[in-house]
Design brief:
Blueprint: E1 8-11, E2 17-18, E3 34-37, E4 72-73, H1 78-84, E5 88-89, E6 93-97, H2 104-115, E7 121-125, H3 130-139, E8 148-151, H4 155-165, E9 169-173, H5 190-207, E10 210-215, H6 226-230, E11 235-240, E12 247-255, E13 263-269, E14 272-275, E15 294-301, E16 304-316, E17 324-327, H7 331-345, E18 352-358, H8 370-381, E19 390-392, E20 395-396, E21 402-403, H9 408-417, E22 422-426, E23 439-443, H10 449-456
Parallel strand pairs: 6-10, 6-11, 7-8, 7-9, 9-10, 15-19, 17-18, 19-22, 22-23
Antiparallel strand pairs: 1-2, 1-3, 4-5, 11-12, 12-13, 13-14, 15-16, 16-18, 20-21
Helix pairs in contact: 4-5
Bound molecules: thymidine-5'-diphosphate and magnesium ion (MG).
């Protein structure tokens, strides 16, 4: 076979190319993802290679680089600004991923409508017709007098039109529908997504346009090549929601201009996405009477404290292997903590099934949940409810020590805001100045926990 005709194998997840087929992609480790492509269709072979994304190239010293403070501009949606790291940066490229139907188009049309009065914005739709976009915007009552729209999927034509109309903010909804004439495979394939995104990113960097790319990608990356895009863009935002819940969260998983793991919370309503500027308490279930096995903890998502309820059910086990089940918390950590509890307080649960759960489908991945988890388990074991005005947080070490967690005062402040009046926390997190309306019980060893709990109940 002539050299140019030799087949190569491209990974559908990451776009890497291999000369031989294999069951697993050597680059990203994905199984069964290699597909046969002709080099001329592979998207990078015969196609002209443009220069880098970031403009003219010449070698300079790092100290000589002009520091231009990245200009930020509010999108008009505070929760979106928060995950972007404090507003939209000019010339930055943001990938907004998420399941179909979660609200990506709704969010961006709302943000564009709010932005357009301050800077020319262009919303390009490849999925819905202009009528559909207009109907939604009208129904939501958005101020869209100046918002420009375009229904187009050819990336070369998009860029040509943008060079003329010079928008400062550009939305591509979605990148999977866009295609480049330079690549002959179908829209939505890895090579198309990569080539179209590369051209758009280059255009954004050269022209200083802020660019939003919408991608129908789940976290597992089931659709064409999210990983291909992740390294090309400055910021990766994922839209998440619990099945059946009307709450939506946007999480920054990569951000060159701000902190990651920042969370923006919205509720999907009849009138579009509404910001939940104070999400702290939406995950609490308020019991009319205190119940055994329930403790409220203050966790942190990004830079923001969040009140969540940790529940435990401890019940006599009827099998030889008592069960340890954790939902929203780390299962191994649960086993470890129960061992520490036994060793240092003598409370044994080896003949008990222990189930723990974080209410509202939240996942708590930080160690601040150690202390509340053990308190919930103890409370359930003894059938003694803890008072409803109590919060707790703290890490527990193997030596039975109760260790501080970061931002203790922030957490306590949040608890006070929501009417909590008592707290059991690590000694090192006890605020130096007492907080009005809050009684803090500080412990530094786990063996002080049972006493601290009897003191409050
Ligand atoms: P959409 O933004 O089209 O999702 P995506 O672009 O991520 O695919 O959101 C569509 C869903 O949101 C749809 O199931 C209906 C719901 N929705 C509302 O509940 N209220 C509204 O005001 C709007 C515009 C959509
Ligand atoms: Mg959409």
């Amino acid at each position: 076979m002539a050299k140019a005709d030799r087949l190569i194998y491209a990974c559908t997840a990451c776009g890497a190319q291999h000369s031989k087929w294999a069951g697993q992609c050597g680059d990203c480790g994905e199984w069964n993802s290699l597909q046969e492509v002709r080099p001329s269709l592979a998207g990078n072979a015969a196609v002209k290679r443009p220069t880098g994304y970031a403009g003219e190239s010449s070698i300079t010293k790092l100290v000589d680089v002009d520091l231009v403070e990245n200009e930020r501009c509010s999108t008009g949606v505070t929760e979106l600004d928060r995950v972007l790291g404090g507003g939209l940066v000019t010339g930055s490229v943001v990938l907004l991923g998420g399941d179909p139907g979660i609200g990506k188009s709704t969010l961006l049309i709302q943000a564009m409508a709010a932005l357009t009065a301050r800077m020319p914005s262009l919303y390009i739709t490849g999925e819905e017709s202009l009528q559909q976009v207009a109907m939604r915007a009208k129904r939501l009552g958005l101020p869209i007098d100046d918002l420009q729209v375009l229904a187009e999927t050819c990336v070369e034509r998009i860029i040509d039109l943008c060079r003329i109309s010079k928008p400062k903010v550009l939305v591509i909804d979605s990148i999977q529908t866009v295609f480049s004439e330079a690549v002959s495979s179908a829209p939505g394939t890895v090579s198309q997504v990569r080539e179209s995104a590369a051209q758009l990113v280059r255009f954004a960097k050269q022209s200083g346009t802020a660019l939003f790319l919408v991608g129908h990608v789940t976290k597992e990356g089931t659709l064409a090549g999210p990983r291909v895009l992740e390294h090309m863009v400055d910021t990766v935002l994922y839209f998440e929601s619990e099945a059946g819940s009307r709450y939506r969260a946007i999480r920054a998983v990569k951000n060159r201009f701000g902190a990651v793991n920042e969370l923006g919370v919205f509720a999907m309503t009849e009138e579009g996405l509404k910001q939940v500027s104070n999400p702290s308490a939406i995950f609490l279930s308020r019991h009319s009477e205190p119940v055994p096995g329930s403790v409220v903890m203050v966790t942190r998502e990004g830079s923001r404290p969040l009140l969540v309820e940790v529940q435990a059910l401890v019940d006599e086990s009827h099998s030889g292997h008592p069960r340890r089940v954790a939902v929203g918390l780390d299962q191994n950590r649960l086993t470890l903590l129960l061992a520490v509890l036994h060793k240092h307080t003598g409370v044994a649960m080896h003949d008990q099934d222990v189930f723990v759960n974080v209410v509202g489908g939240v996942r708590v991945s930080e160690t601040a949940s150690d202390l509340p988890l053990l308190m919930a388990a103890l409370s359930s074991l003894r059938e003694r409810p803890l008072p409803g005005d109590l919060i707790a947080f703290g890490e527990v070490g193997l030596a039975g020590e109760v260790r501080p967690v970061q931002a203790g005062e922030d957490r306590l402040g949040e608890a006070v805001k929501h009417g909590f009046t008592r707290a059991i926390v690590p000694t090192a997190n006890k605020p130096r100045k007492s907080i009005n309306g809050l009684t803090v019980i500080a412990i530094d060893r786990l063996d002080q926990l049972p006493d601290a709990m009897s003191e409050v109940s």
